[in-house]
Amino acid sequence: MRTTRVVKLGGTELDRPGWLAVCAAAIGLGRDPVVVVHGGGHAISELSVRLGLPAEKRAGVRVTSRAVAAAVEMALAGPVNRQVVAALRDAGVDALGLSGVDGGLLTAEPLDPDLGHVGRITDVRSALLQSLLLAGLTPVIAPMAPAAGDAAPPLNVNADAAAAAIAAALGAAELLLVSDVAGVVVKGEPRASIHVSEVPRLIAAGTVHGGMIAKLDAAAAALAGGARAVRIGGTELLTTPTAGTRVLASAARAA
User: Fold this and answer.
1) Which of 231, 110, 117 is CA-nearest to residue 167?
2) Which DSSP letter does residue 141 get?
3) CATH of the domain at 208
4) Which in 13, 94, 139, 154 has the greatest CB count within 10 A?
5) Cross-strand pairs, 124
């Protein structure tokens, strides 16, 4: 699927219907196949509070007990996924909501025992996604995934990382990490491009932090796995080929 784009839509921004509508309209204008992956951190935190569950994070990663994992599944595969699907369908996109559990789409392994039910993607059933795309459908994926042979609640997977794994598995033409930032900001200015070799230095200097670290890690993983291009930025990514920060994997790509 060499023309496919994988679009990850940020979690906090999904609470703004106007922002989501802009994204959906822009996706609807495109001609190439699209796979959408969404976050939903605010919805998970809100549901956890309502259920009396702790909302703890370590280095930006949600500590996920068995009960919190169930809340993650309830929020992401439920109202958040439906919200994104509804916005896309309103924009004329034939969207189909899925979680990583459906059809064995995603498989994961535990990331760190101290984080509980948090995982990293180990396998993507790309043939299923390709079949849906060939049928003219736009899969909308909630990023949770079961561990192989494990009947416990599915593992909570970072949405940027899940989008990267999907983009790599499909050999996607582009991975777009869309949020409310203009791109990777260095010394107060968004960068037009950044090489993955620069990332450790930028992290060590505190130039990038929090969610941007996860995005840059995801960008590097997608490129290493076979995605052809990655950009990080705002909704302009969806309509303007030069918008945002392009992440480069090699000198050859930079040239």
Assistant:
1) 231
2) E
3) 3.40.1160.10
4) 154
5) 106
Catalytic residue among 215, 233, 234, 244: 215
d(CA 252, CA 249): 8
Domain that holds residue 136: 5-254
Q: Indicate if 57 belongs to the active site.
A: no
Cα–chain center distance at 31:
21
Q: Among this protein's residues, is 8 annotated catalytic?
A: yes
Q: Which of 251, 247, 250, 255 is nearest to 229 (CA)?
A: 247
Q: Which is catalytic among the residues 10, 11, 39, 116?
A: 11
Q: Is 215 an annotated catalytic residue? A: yes
The single residue of 8, 10, 28, 234 carrying the catalytic annotation is 8
Residue 126 CB: number of other CB atoms within 10 A? 16
Task: Specify the DSSP class assigned to residue 93.
Answer: -
Q: For each of the chain's 255 residues, which pLDDT tens digit applies?
A: 568 999 999 867 788 889 999 999 999 999 899 999 999 878 888 898 899 998 777 766 888 889 999 999 999 999 999 999 999 999 999 999 999 999 999 999 999 888 989 999 999 999 999 999 999 999 999 999 998 776 678 999 999 999 999 999 999 999 999 998 889 988 888 899 999 898 888 888 888 877 888 899 999 999 999 999 999 999 999 999 999 999 998 654 443
On whether the pTM is more than 0.70, the answer is yes
Token pair, residue 80, equals 């958040």
Instruction: Point out which residues pair with 139 in neighbouring strands.
Output: 96
Among the options 40, 100, 116, 160, which is catalytic? 160
If one counts the domains in the chain, the total is 1
Q: Out of 10, 28, 39, 41, pick the active-site residue.
A: 41
